[in-house]
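>> received
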Amino acid sequence: MFKSITLQNIRVFKKASFHFDEGINLIIGPNGSGKTTILEALATFSFGRFQSIEKDQLAIRAGEQIGRIEAQIKENGSTHKLELALTPLKKTMKIDEKNLPASQMVGRQRAVLFNPETIDLVSGAPQLRRRELDLTIAQNHPAHIKILLEYRQILRQRNELLKRIALDYAGIGELDFWDSKLAEHALSVVALRQKFIATANEKIGAIFARLLKRNMQLSLCYVPTAHYDDFATALKHKRAYDLRSGLTSVGPHRDDFCFKSDQYKLEEGASRGEQRLASFAFKLVERDYLTEEGSLPVLLMDDVFSELDKSRREMVTKVLDGGQIIVTATDENVMPSMIRENGRIIKL
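>> returned
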């Protein structure tokens, strides 16, 4: 759990510290007061980076050259210090004064992030769902990040080779080596993704029906762009197309997953409200997946209750019971009574 966080020269904050209880913590403030910044700063120690910006350096307060975030977490009775330091050219992360690559920070404090963007998982862009899938898996399987990084490096090299071949600077036979390497890493990436989908399908239907308050089936379906039992051959079949575009057209970097009812894909036939509740159900499945030996991941919820009607707010709160919850809102009155009455309130 998070005990505290200090932000120095991060977005709107010159210097500010916040302390959190083990249970519910409610951050109240107007738009632009820094609520989202607090949650995203906490999430950097779960995901290794800010989620809403392309480069972490963009979080440095305007006019400043150095930004710092320091968090205290409690783990198995011990307290640990996590740090992130940013300059325009460098990013440094530490645990208990020891430098650590950002990729190894993923899952250091397991967390599930709800925000307005991830509420749109059902109808959002495929890259949003891929990122959600991979960050969740990586918190439980740190090696997944290493494999993904290696896959992306090989992918970049293959794409560069495609461009060189198109310009007659290299021979097409050189693709064989990179196709083989790409296939090896792709199989590992997809295997963990499909395993997560299978695990999620054991629970997501029941959770969704409870939130929806009626019986409507929900399941997840992985949508691959190739057959991964012989991915190298699939790459060969796509060579002519890839050479024209200069990009690799199939692979885990192009895969997707979808939300399905018993009749249709939710993005095609479900109402906006049903899609949002399906996204909530997915997040609750993430929470179960990230629960280790009874220890729940931290729930970081950024202004999401305003998206639900009163009865759904109360229902979501019931299934969220337990563990540390840090939630933001512009208006305290839109929060479910259980959160208002039992949470620590932080006003900005």
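>> The radius of gyration is 22 Å.
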